[in-house]
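Q: Joint fold for the lines below.
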Amino acid sequence: MKKLISKLRNYFAQKKIGPDGKIPVRVVFNRFRQVLDTNNRALEIMADMGDKLGGNYIFDINYIRKSYSELSDAVFQSIYNLNSLSRNRYLHLHRVFEKISDQTNKILKGESPVNLQEPVLYYRDISWEMSDEVGGKNAGIAELSNHLKLPVPDGFAITASAFRDFVEYNRIEDRIRALKNKYRKAAKRSQQEDIMVAITFAEAGEHETAKEILMEENYLDESFFAEVRDFFRKGKLPPYLESAFQKSLDTLRGKEGRSCRIAVRSSAEKEDLEFSFAGQFETVLNVPADMKNLVRSYKEILASLYSPNAVSYRELVMPKEKPMMAMCVVCMKMVDAQASGVMFTSDPNDPDNDAVIINANWGLGKTVVDGRVDADTYIVTKDEPCEIREKLIGRKELSVVPVPDGGIREISVPPEKQKEQCLSDDQIKILAQQAVLVEHYMKKPQDIEWSVDKKGNIYLLQSRRLRMSFTAGETAGQISSSLEKYPVIMEKQGKIARRGIGAGRVFILEKIEDLRDFTQGSILVAKHDSSQFIRIMPKASAIITDIGTPTSHMSNVAREFQVPTIVNTGTGTSVFKNGDEITVDAEDNKIYAGIVKELLRYRITEDISLMETDEFRLLQKLLRYITPLNLIDPLMDSFVPENCRTFHDIIRFIHEKAIAELVDVERYREVLRNNIVVKLDVPIPTGIFMIDIGGGLHTTGDVKKASLDEIASIPFKAIVKGMMHPGVWHSEAVTMKINDFMSSMLKMPDVSNMTYLGENVAVISREYVNLSLRFGYHFNMMDCYCSDNVRDNHVYFRFVGGATDISKRSRRAELLGSILREFNMRTNIKGDLIIARTDNLPRQEMEELLNNLGRLIAYSRQLDALLDDDSVAERYVDNFLREKYILD
Amino acid sequence: MAKDKCRLMVVDDEPIVCRRLKQVLEKAGYDVDIFGSGSSAIDRLDNMSYDIIMTDLKMEGVDGMKILEAAKIKNPAAKVIMITGFAEMETAREAFRKGVFDFISKPVEIDVIKEVISKAEREIARLKK
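A: Joint structure:
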């Protein structure tokens, strides 16, 4: 690493630097362009990779490797380019880059990334892609809590890394091998018989069968497995594991101290994912939360990997399993359960029976899970608000309860409570609503365990995929003909951003604020993409937009939440009506009127879920270190290279710092002193000077000023046109009202006086403008790229106020913010700082937006003056949006 | 619009490609058999005829080119579509000489695959007349 840095330093030392130690301005701007280029390339590859998660493509491992290596190159070059622009101010980024690359390279090699070699992880730190490291059950619990915000008892996961260390520390694999040999020798005779049988098969041409016989380890009997289980039970914890367990226990116990009890459950590597392993491994309930008991239960669960049931199940479903399957463990606070049970989010025997089925008994759920009691059955409709359709109250003669010293026992239920309904109607409905939410999010019917504590609080304990036992009425092949009877409202319009099938009622979004009225299971139909949709993603059955791209932030989020999404349909909001029932087939890009049961059933029964393929999971894991954006606010102290956790963070950081290099006032003075600046010659006194870095002006040679027609820069021309729009530049009216104040608002730079220069500057090329404006006390910066290539296009708008007190400035920021939001820009306001941005709009829309922003810049000069009166200011905003620029 | 169902063979040594193609194409109404290796596909060609064959070009052992040859010997009317990660000109030329119907390079959008297959289907229908 050090070597790399010194190499770079040497390289920079040789770079062209003027005799005064300064880099010539054209070089500066060229480097700036290079930063933008490499950044754009990186973002493009990222978007392309994210796009593949939408399920609309067939890709393989080579694609993942190739894209990753191109991305990694682009990010590296961007860092390099920023450093040459800033004279090595950000060499540290290389170190950050190396750190992230270490992790991604490990993922590509199929290893666990470094930071997941934690022996223990709290649920808040677990995400779905970590299922290999924490096991399926733990990953599922974390999803319920982190993504769906459903109530789950506090707890932590003991990871696969802990398991591997335990196995290694106790040399368990070696000992199993030795034990196998011992048994094999003892069974030599019978093995010879096997060989004879195998040869007979082989001679008959049945090579596969012969091979299977030879592979079978049928000399291993129950006593072998009992010995292996003892290896685990008698094993010792490595010291570092011991301290990690202790620390986690202390945190979990918190104020409860010694009275705290936990449930310790298995969460095997593939449990609840591809294979259910339901009930094959150990669960220890009501364990006192101390080291002795936790460790004992932990080892007991590890040992259950070799229980006779688990072994035969594993052989049945994973015959080729070679390395030892890792056993992770769930540690979760016990719920002081009044009643518990299981719910199915669909009827496993009849998918057309659109209901949640809840089984409940007093005490812990064990009696229900084991099917040992005549439990209550509640059948609840899945449509909001979930009505109870049927209640069958069982005769619940026994229940299982915790014992004060630890452990559980069976008790008989007092006769008067046996026929009593053990949940209130409200609790039944809430449980059903939660079930619908979980199914909706997981996209498959679920089997959920839950408990209600003595205070009436509901907790979900785990959720796994429910195996449907019926055979589907139609196979995928038959579906295409049965769909023909449904009317198609829309076909092949727009782009699929996330594949899938969803049905529900149309919810047309007029204003972002209306998102709060969005109901569970509806289909969002909106004019534009917005990252704000994240708020309703867990509830949405599908999303349709008039305008948008599959590479937008919203599309990324839709993929993360697996919401079927079609963007850029052009006419969605006018074709669909609020409240209509429709079915979105974002696989074939068709939208049907009504609920198409065949498609919904197809979704449930399709045997291969995209998410369960290895390549898909690899890509998803990899993107975890690539796409999430953690560095958001450049004004925060945390906006430093050290806090870049993903490639996207690095790119974001580079973008911000590259612009900062340009808008650096010192730098501008330097620029203006050494360069030919061209004055913008338009009828309004903007005081803007242009610096053409390539193709920004039609004029050539040594000119002092240029008119609107002479501007070739697409984005800058659009902005200037907006500023010149009749009525928006309202100097007279404002001047009349507040004379003295306004005179300071429009500070005209005086060319003869260099100290004022550098405040209103536009750096332009044909497709780019970086505009820095200072009108009075406002400081305004825009960075735009506008070309025919949608992917490259962006607008970055930053506005900071000054002069007046902060409350007035914040009010002005709010007002401007509300306008920017009307323009569908992603707008962040912090005090009096506004940052608004938009990307990936087509050129024509970009020009419209820039024109509007031009009007806003001109118009906003007035707002300051009117801040004393909120109602007046609000009216101005309103006027602006109705294109009424006259002050009244 | 009851269509004459085409029988499709899909050969790719990447399981994800086979599984996804099967899922997508069955939903579109085709009968699809998938094969994870060239040799198993060749074995099947001995006793089963397919209208359309999609095969990966680069595979260990029996590759797409061999499948193309075998398929054309069995049934000259079969349409063979080659899937490849690297569309090399040399290979492409050789494949066209040997009668490949079309080339598709990975990663590929599902709609593109469907389009190529329906093009092959139309071609088959045209030749039957």
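Q: Anything notable?
A: Chain B has a mean pLDDT of 85. Residues 110-128 of chain B form the longest helix (19 residues).
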